[in-house]
Specification:
Layout (H helix, E strand, L loop, with lengths): L1 E3 L10 E5 L21 H8 L7 E6 L18 H4 L4 E3 L5 E3 L2 E6 L5 E6 L13 H12 L8 H5 L1 E6 L4 E6 L6 H7 L8 H5 L10 E7 L3 E6 L13 E6 L3 H10 L4 E2 L7 H5 L4 E6 L4 E7 L9 H10 L2 H8 L5 E2 L13 H4 L6 H10 L5 E8 L2 H15 L3 E8 L1 H9 L6 E6 L6 H7 L15 H12 L5 H18 L2 E7 L2 E5 L2 E2 L2 E2 L5 E2 L4 E2 L1
Parallel strand pairs: 3-12, 3-13, 17-18, 17-19
Antiparallel strand pairs: 1-6, 2-14, 4-5, 6-7, 7-9, 8-9, 10-11, 11-12, 13-21, 14-21, 15-19, 15-20, 16-20, 22-25, 23-24
């Protein structure tokens, strides 16, 4: 089966746009209805504007780039697609489109894929991009030191056959149904400077911008790549990613026009942004993230499934969504966005807010009061989420002590299975192939997850879903149902709200998109 794509897609990713007073209809009352899908006049204005070259975009972020986490997807991955490219990129229907891979042929048995690569691409240091760089990229993610979530998929590649500089055959140990997830996740780095990259000294890719300077604690300064392979792109002269951890200061930076873009405005503050005529709020409805409560199953009494069920019933997802997240998202007990083939309404509503039932379950397990720690990110939005969970749990006799933690430390604890009894973070990987969640995401990984949950049945069904070549829709749905049933029954991860990125931008900024892993794409972005 061959796929040939002559050009890159240039349209915006699927999202809804909400404009403040004077700019179009403001959509409220999302509740349980799901992610926004309407498009207002703001996006029409964007489509009609004439692209303009020049200018530097200031992006306000609430946490700094962490070089050691370069090859894992985290809150610090926003800049990846600015400096680097990937092999392919999904459209809204999970159909892969070309980036550095111009076309490909997938073998009928699912055991190999032939990639035909672009031959007009150079790295920022002037070296030509070739098949050797793809070989390195795959082998790099196979290295456990990189802590890449898609390590298992990369490890399934067991052979490389180069056919010249720009054609490469990847041979697989077994079929996998998420190879294009890997291709969108895997940034193509310069092999000669990769150790400098993870130390933060050099970031050399093929992307639209080059690293000018990284100032630890302050942010990244990027400048236009004059040799970018997309003709006439990018429009912007540069990008500044500026660290502003305080919510009030971040919002002030947007309101004053000092910053023109941010994805880190806390949900409860979005109401103030909606009143600003010069700002636009855009909700990416891809479901690229989800907020959850993690449970360490090795800590008594959380090793008791009944206690974990009690926690799941105790939490008020609707209140969390409405009051803390500004109504952006989908209250859900399951990890899947509505766009996922694994989504069902029954799974989404499996656990509702029922404190009476939670107290009854705790009593049946021999508990009337518990005291547990709860780790969360030491950021305003994440602290508000933790406080909401703390309140709900308090109502059923579970008293939690909040443990604010910086993002880099929290990510390392997540990877190393060093979390306390409870933690709350966000996870991705449910917005792509459903099997990827359970073979790649640290909280859900069937082989080694943060909760230290183990189940032969879980491993068996996940592996079947991951390696079964092109099952029928009915067979695939049956596997998704089994995976979700285990997640809900075992409750080692308690999902709360499925949520895409919420973008706040200046009304004069156009052409911003995100890929499925929330890598920021500014190829077609411009300021007017």
């Amino acid at each position: 089966m061959t796929a040939l794509y002559p050009s890159m897609p240039t349209g915006p990713s699927r999202r809804s746009t909400l404009r403040a007073a004077g700019g179009g209809t403001l959509l409220l009352g999302l509740g349980l209805a799901g992610c926004r899908s309407a498009v207002s006049e703001a996006s029409s204005d964007s489509a009609d504007a004439e692209p303009k070259r020049g200018g530097t975009l200031d992006v306000a972020v609430n946490a700094d780039f962490t070089p050691a986490l370069l090859f894992s997807q985290s809150q610090q991955s926003l800049q990846h697609r600015l400096i680097y490219n990937t092999l392919t990129r999904y459209d809204d229907r999970l159909s892969p489109k070309p980036e550095l891979a111009a076309s490909w042929t997938y073998a009928e048995d699912g055991r190999s894929i032939t990639l035909r690569l672009r031959d007009d691409v150079t790295f920022h240091n002037g070296r030509r991009f070739t098949a050797d760089d793809v070989v390195f990229a795959v082998k790099n993610l196979q290295d456990p030191v990189r802590a890449a979530q898609l390590h298992a998929t990369a490890a399934a590649v067991t052979g490389f056959e180069k056919r010249g500089d720009h054609e490469l055959v990847l041979r697989l140990a077994h079929p996998v149904n998420n190879l294009f997830d890997l291709f969108e996740f895997m940034i193509i780095t310069d092999p000669e400077t990769v150790e400098d990259a993870v130390a933060g000294r050099k970031l050399i890719g093929t992307g639209p911008f080059r690293l000018k300077k990284w100032s630890p604690g302050s942010g990244l300064s990027l400048t236009r790549n004059e040799r970018y392979w997309q003709p006439g792109r990018p429009y912007l002269d540069g990008v500044e990613l500026r660290v502003i951890p305080q919510a009030d200061a971040l919002i002030s930076s947007l309101r004053s026009g000092q910053s023109q873009l941010s994805f880190n405005v806390p949900g409860k503050n979005l109401g103030t942004i909606r009143s600003e005529k010069r700002l636009t709020v855009s909700d990416y409805d891809t479901g690229a993230g989800a907020i959850y409560l993690g449970v360490n199953t090795t800590v008594p009494p959380l090793d008791d499934r009944t206690v974990r069920h009690a926690l799941a019933w105790a939490l008020d997802r609707d209140r969390l969504l409405a009051q803390t997240l500004g109504g952006y998202g989908l209250a859900s007990a399951a990890p899947w966005p509505k766009s996922s083939p694994a989504f069902t309404e029954a799974h989404r509503t499996h656990y509702s807010h029922n404190p009476g039932k939670a107290r009854e379950l705790l009593r049946s397990a021999g508990h009337t009061k518990l005291e547990l720690p709860l780790l969360h990110l030491a950021l305003p939005g994440e602290t508000a989420i933790a406080e909401s969970l703390q309140y709900d749990l308090e109502q059923v006799g579970v008293h939690v002590t909040l443990q604010p933690t910086d993002p880099a430390t929290a990510q390392k604890k997540l990877i190393s299975q060093d979390m306390p009894a409870l933690w709350t973070l966000g996870h991705g990987f449910a917005q792509i192939q459903p099997s990827t969640l359970a073979v790649s995401a640290y909280p859900f990984n069937e082989a080694k997850n943060t909760s230290e949950f183990r189940s032969d049945e879980y491993t068996r069904v996940v592996r079947e879903a991951w390696t079964k070549p092109e099952p029928t829709a009915a067979a695939a749905n049956a596997l998704h149902e089994r995976i979700t049933r285990i997640l809900l029954d075992e409750a080692f991860i308690i999902d709360l709200v499925v949520r895409g990125q919420v973008q706040v931008s200046a009304a004069g900024l156009h052409g911003v998109t995100l890929n499925k892993f929330s890598y920021l794409d500014l190829d077609n972005a411009y300021l007017v």
